[in-house]
Amino acid sequence: MGPGTIERWMALLPDIVAAALYAVVVFLLSLGFLVVFIETISPRRLIACLVGSLILGMAFASLGEIGIALLVAGGASAFVANHVFEWLTSR
Fold this sequence. Notes:
Elements: H1 16-37, H2 43-62, H3 66-89
Helix pairs in contact: 1-3, 2-3
C-alpha cells in the first residue's frame, strides 16, 4: 500500500441478504441435526447456548460483522426451535 491510500476492512459477508439466507441454511441444518441425533437438551445447556451466542453475536456485530452475527443467531435459534418442538410433542 502506498502513501495516501486508505486501508479499510471488508466484512466477511458484506451482503446482508446473502447473510440472511446463509443464516436460514445454518438454522435448518442445525435444527435437522438436533432433531435427528439429539433427543433432549437440558434447559441449563439451552440457556448457556443462548447466552454464549448472544455474547458472540454482539462481539461480531460490534466488529462490523453483521452477517456472521446473523449466522450465530441462526444457530442459536435452532436450539430454541428444537426445545420448543420437544416441548410441544412431549406434553
